[in-house]
Amino acid sequence: MSVLFGPTVQQGYVVPDLQAAMRHWIERGIGPFFFEELRGYTGLYQNEETQFDLDAAFAYSGDQQIEVIQPLGSATSIYSRFLEQNPLGGLQHLAFWVDDIEETLARLDRMGKQYVVAQRYGDRHAYLDSVDVPGIMIQLMAHNEINDELFRVIQKGGEGWDGVKSPIRKIDWSTGRPIAPAP
C-alpha cells in the first residue's frame, strides 16, 4: 500500500499490440478481458488540449485490475510517449482511487511532494509523475458513478471464469452505461 495514495487498484501497461497483450495475460490464467475502443478521446496533455485514439482492455486478478492500453494514430499522449521510450511496452502506471483529484493534488503540495500532472481527463482521471524521481506514473481515479460501475461490471464479469470461455469481450456502451456482454 502507498502511504501517499492508499492501496493500488490497477496496474496499467502500455503496449504496442493489445491483442498480443491480452493473450499474454490470458495464457497466465488472468481474464477474461473486457475491451473498449476509444476514438476521439479528449483530455489535457501537459496542459494542452489533445484528442487521440486508443484501445484499452481490463481484467481482474483478485482485487487487482490489469489494464492494457494501445495508443493508435499519431497524436501525442502519455501512452504514445511511453511507447516511444519503451517500444516493447511495459508497466506505465499504478492507479489509486481518490474521492477528489484536486484535494489529493493539494494534499501532495502541502506535504512538499513535487508531482507534475502529465495528462488529465477533467475531474475523472489524472496521471502524475514525480518531478524528482520520474518513472512509473500514478493515476488518480475519482470515485464517481460511471467509474465505479465500470470496475464492478468488469470484476463481476470475471467471477467464475473458467479460463477458456469468451476470454475477450467487448464492453457495450450503447446505453451510456457499461454493460458486460454475456460469456
Short structural description:
It is built from 4 helices and 9 strands. With 183 residues, it is α/β, with parallel strands linked by helices. The longest helix has 14 residues, at 145-158.
Q: Secondary structure elements and their pairing?
A:
Elements: E1 10-14, H1 18-27, E2 33-45, E3 48-61, E4 64-72, H2 78-85, E5 90-98, H3 101-110, E6 115-121, E7 125-130, E8 137-142, H4 145-158, E9 168-170
Parallel strand pairs: 1-4, 2-9, 5-8
Antiparallel strand pairs: 1-5, 2-3, 2-6, 3-4, 6-7, 7-8
CATH class: Alpha Beta
- Average pLDDT metric: 93
Shape descriptor reads globular
Q: How many helices in DSSP terms? A: 4
CATH architecture: Roll
Strand order of the largest sheet: 1-4-3-2-6-7-8-5
Low-confidence stretches: none
Task: State the CATH superfamily name.
Answer: 2,3-Dihydroxybiphenyl 1,2-Dioxygenase, domain 1
Give the number of DSSP strands: 9
Secondary structure class reads: alpha/beta
Tell me the Rg in angstroms: 16 Å
The main sheet comes to: 8 strands, mixed, barrel
